[in-house]
Amino acid sequence: MIKVKHVSHHFEMGKKGRKTVLPVLHDLSFEIHKGEIVAIAGKSGSGKSTLLNLISGFIRPVEGEIWIEGTKVTDLNESQFADFRLEHIGFIFQNFQLIPSMTAYENIELPLILKGLDVKARKKKTEETLEKVGLGQFGDHYPSELSGGQQQRVSIARALVSNPPLILADEPTGSLDSDTESELLDFIKQLNEELGITFLIITHDEEVASIGNRTIVVKDGQMVQGG
Amino acid sequence: MTLKDQFRFVRQNMKKNKLRIFMTVLATAIGCTFLIVLASVGFGLHQSIVKETLADRVVTEISVHSAPDDEGNYSRPGEEDIRYLESLEGVKAVTRRQNLMQAPKFSFKDYETEQQATIAHMPSEVKAGFELSKGELPSEENEIIVGYHFQEQLRKKSAETESQQENQPNKAEHYEGSLIGKSIDMTVKKVIDGEEKTRTIPLIISGIGEAPSREWMKDQNIYISESILKQVESFTNTPKGMIDPEGQKHNLEKDFSGYDEVKVYTESLEDVKPVTDQIEREGYSTYSVLKEMDQINMIFTIMKAGLILIGTIAVLIASIGIYNTMTMAVTERAPDIGIMKAIGANPKTIKRIFLLESSYIGLIGAVVGTILAYVISAIVNFGLPLIIESAFQEQLPKSLKFSSIPLSLVLIAVGICLLVTIISGVRPAKRATKIDILKAMRREV
What we know:
The complex is a heterodimer of chains A (about 230) and B (about 450). Chain A is α/β, with parallel strands linked by helices and about 230 residues long. Chain A has helices at about 50-55, 80-90, 105-115, 120-130, 150-160, 180-195, 205-210; strands spanning about 1-15, 20-30, 35-40, 65-70, 70, 90, 165-170, 200-205, 215-220, 220-225. Chain A has one domain (about 35-60, about 75-225): Rossmann fold. The two termini of chain A are about 15 Å apart. Chain B is an alpha+beta fold and about 450 residues long. Chain B folds into two domains: about 5-55 and about 295-440, no CATH class; about 65-285, no CATH class. Chain B has helices at about 5-15, 20-55, 80-85, 120-130, 150-155, 160-165, 225-235, 250-255, 270-280, 290-330, 335-340, 345-390, 405-435, 435-440, and strands at about 60-65, 65-70, 75, 90-100, 105-110, 110-115, 115-120, 130-135, 145, 155, 185-190, 195-210, 220-225, 260-265, 285-290. In chain B, helix 2 (about 20-55) packs antiparallel against helix 13, helix 10 crosses helix 12 (about 345-390) and helix 12 runs antiparallel to helix 13. Chains A and B meet through helix 2 and helix 3 of A and helix 1, helix 11, helix 12 and helix 14 of B. Chain B: GO terms for molecular function: transmembrane transporter activity. Chain B: Keywords: Cell membrane, Membrane, Transmembrane, Transmembrane helix. Chain B: It is a multi-pass membrane protein. Chain B: This is FtsX-like permease family protein.
């Protein structure tokens, strides 16, 4: 499903002419198989979020290759990668990243609009997904009118609605209380079992990491466990 | 993403800041109105002048003024020239007229008038479109045709002075009966050694010309034949009946031969240009309404282009507002753009949405501006003549139109407006596509 081959990355910091190089990842290689739930764990600043951003295509690695579903995504340009994300990857973010001026329904519908689906198909799919995440009666609510747990469910519904084979989750429970956190983790497990969706979860929380089939631990930009 | 959904997005986004969008649309509309109204003055005046120029004019008529002789000297067109002009392809008729070089006195019963007489070649006049309102064409040498308004000039001998002073023909003073078939005397004069001598030539009115197409035009001409001219010339012993008290010897052939007025009439409007070109190539100088129209059109085309250019500056100023609005919209929506890009929105789609928004503002502005321009144009056309007439006490021609907005002007203005607004939206739209996903999602943009 995902192949990371000898990926290294660094950031250039400071003003032009006086830039310093900050190494973040060093020669990272691992593989994630279809249907797995894999947690990438590590302390703050270990480089785990950078790794997720590289796999998402939000930033490009300085060295190495990344393959997703047989496509060498590191060779794709920005436009091609956007189309690839729309077709193959769903996202769950720590602070939900919902568009505040859109209702829950409209936020979930957004990937389908971007795909160019007709209104009828969109309506059916969106309503089904809203039901699936248990927010059937909250479709007309704006994100500000929903609790943190409900917002995260909307975020999950948006990731699910276009049936992607892979969902990338960046600290998905980071903004939730412990009850809502365990509810969400159960839901992720359920989705994995029922739909066979591959999950790659970035977390620093051991409990979250425990739901995975395996955990890759990153420390100081290097993989120390789980490859 | 379908175009329909892109439009839905644009409308949703525009609703978020109605006041700002309203002000931007207003600025664009005012710019567009200014452009249309300004240029409409050029179009209106052009239309009025063309209308004025073409009124009562025969568009297939070409006046031929002079022809060169073998030595390159210019003289009046003569018989040979007439034959050449008649031989040209596309020529329907060539009329030629000479003027009697004195104004004879015409007397009929107790009525009389002094009028200029014209020697016309009637067959060619008829071929060119001359028509009679009464009577028939001359068949005898002493028969003449008079203009439609000639009768108004025939006034009672005693009343003439008073009437002339008033310069208004009094109905009761001029002859009211029929003139057809009536005998009228033409008195010509000559001066020999300071002594004036006259001769009366009896003529018969065989026909009256048709009324001119406009009420204010007067046709008081008298059309006499070549043989009558010869009788006058034999009496005065001068060319064309000229009164020459000095008794100078004139070179008849050189100074007075030929026609005073030669006009070529073409079969159709399309023939005017080729026939004019051909005549001019032979060295004649010509004049036609079409030639005059070419010059008028050229001057007004330059004027209209200049006015459109000045008007475009107003639209350009409005485009600064659109640029500002779009840049603010991109900045405000950066987090949303970041989210959309993260979940798979193509940069091209983002760019298209912003370009659509700026074009939408431009289109609404152009439509509102056009409606506003039509309203202003109607007010100007109605109100300005009233103001001018009351302020300067001057009567303006009825056909004068200050402002005219043809469809072509609307299309040009809307086109300029759309082009300028789209261009002003390009940079903000490009900026939207360059937004960094991570920075936008962290609200750092």
